[in-house]
Amino acid sequence: MTDKEALKLALEALEPFGTPRWAGRGVDKANEAITAINQALAAPAQRPQNCGTGYCSCIECVVDTPLAPQRTWVDLTPQDLNEIFKVSTTGEDAVFLALDKIKELNYD
Question: What is the mean pLDDT of residues 15-21?
């Protein structure tokens, strides 16, 4: 349910209590709530203010935060693979050594 749908539902529920028939039974509060809901429904949607942190999900931070520059991916060379296979004793060991080498080449 959207905010507008919720406001319309609340307005529909409150409108009978704003009539003179309910005088003295909170009719002033009901009329005040009805007025506030009508104003909220008539107001244009507001965009959130840029919080300026760059770490939240507000549209300004998402759009205004520059992306980190992309690095070129570095693959393992045949020499890297030969070194890995020379020193590894199992297939699992070779996989972990290859992952370590890839991390060293691309993330450090």
Answer: 67
